[in-house]
Amino acid sequence: MTLITADSGDDYSKPLLSTGFAKGLAPERLAARSALAIAESLNAVVRTHTRVGAIDTRAHALRIGEERLDYGELVLATGAAPIAPFDVPEALAGRVMTVNDLDDYRAFHAAVSDLGRPARVAIVGAGLVGCEFANDLLAGGHRVSLVAPEAAPLPRLLPEPLGRALGEAFRDAGMGLHLGAGVVGLQAEGGDALVCLEGGAAVVADLVLLATGLRPRTSLAEAAGLAVSTAGIHTDRTLATSAPDVYALGDVACVEGVNAMYVQPLQASARALARTLAGTPTAVRYGAGRYWSRRRCCRWWRCPPRRHRHAGASRGRRGISPPWPRPRTDV
Ligand SMILES: Cc1cc2nc3c(=O)[nH]c(=O)nc-3n(C[C@H](O)[C@H](O)[C@H](O)COP(=O)(O)OP(=O)(O)OC[C@H]3O[C@@H](n4cnc5c(N)ncnc54)[C@H](O)[C@@H]3O)c2cc1C
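Above: inputs. Below: predicted complex with flavin-adenine dinucleotide.
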C-alpha cells in the first residue's frame, strides 16, 4: 500500500484544529503521529509533500511529475478546498486566512501569536467550522466577531430557533454577532482589515478567518474522465467511481448523490471500502448522523429521532455524558 499526500503526512484529527486556542495548544501538539510512524504501523509506503498530477485510468497509472506509478486499485481521498466568495485585496495578504488542514492552522496560529496580544478576529461564515473557531478563539481570550448572511448560526445543522439560542449564548459570552447581512468585500485600512457588510456597516479586525464552505477537489478525477459534479466524484455505495478499480471517499466523494463532509460518514466509508478491497464487496451505510459541539459557551447536539435504531446513542446510555465544565447554555 502506498499513501500519497501533498501535505506533511502528519496524523491529526481535523476537528481538533478548532480546539487549540481554548486549550493553549501549540500546533505541533495537534499531530498525533508523524508520517514515518504511520508508515511503520501500517507497513505502508508514505510519500509526503508529493502531489499527484494526473491519473491514466486505462493504463492504471498515476503521474507524479515525470514519474509513473502503477496501481492495481486506486482510492481518491483528496478532500475539499476552501471557497473564498470574494476577492482578497493584496494589502490583506497574510491577514485573511482559511483553516482546512494542519499547515493552515500553523499559519493562522502564528499570525494570532505574532500580534502579541489578544487578537480581533472576524470570522466570515456561521456554519460548523466558523462556529467552532468562534467558540475556540473566544475561549482562548481573543475578541471574535461572527459574520454571516443567515439569521442564526448553524443554518444547515440546527432549526432557526435553536440557532438563535446558540447565537444568544455566543453574545452572552462576549462575541460580536453580525448576522443577516452578507459581506460585500474586504478592505485594508492602516493595520486593520475591514469586513464590509451589505447596508454599509463594517467589522474591524486584525485577522479575517474565512469559513465560507468547501468545494470537493475533483480536478484530478475530472481530467481523468471520471464522472464528477460540483458535489464531488460520483460513486455508488461501494464507493466505486465510474472508472474501473478507482474508488473515492471522504470530502471529495459524492456517494449516491450525497456528499456528507463529516468524520462519521468518512469512517463508515473507510470500513466498507477496506472490506471491498479485501475481496468482499460492501455497501456503505452511514446510519443516522449525530453531531455535537461541547465548547465553552454553549454545547449542542443534533440527534436522530428516537425511533431510529441509532437513537440509543443518546446521552448517558452510551456514556456520552459531558466531562467538561457545565456551559452556560444547552441547546
Ligand atoms: C476546522 C474543522 C473542524 C471540523 N470539525 C468537524 C467535526 O467536529 N465533526 C465532523 O464530523 N467533521 C468535522 N470537520 C470535517 C472533517 O474534518 C472532514 O470531513 C474530514 O477531515 C475530511 O477528510 P478527507 O480525508 O476527505 O480530506 P482531507 O483531510 O482534506 O485530506 C485530503 C488529503 O488529500 C491530499 N491531496 C489533495 N490533492 C492531492 C494531490 N493532487 N496529490 C496528493 N495529495 C493530494 C491533501 O494533501 C490531504 O492530505 C471539520 C473540518 C474542519 C476544517
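The chain has seven helices and 25 strands.
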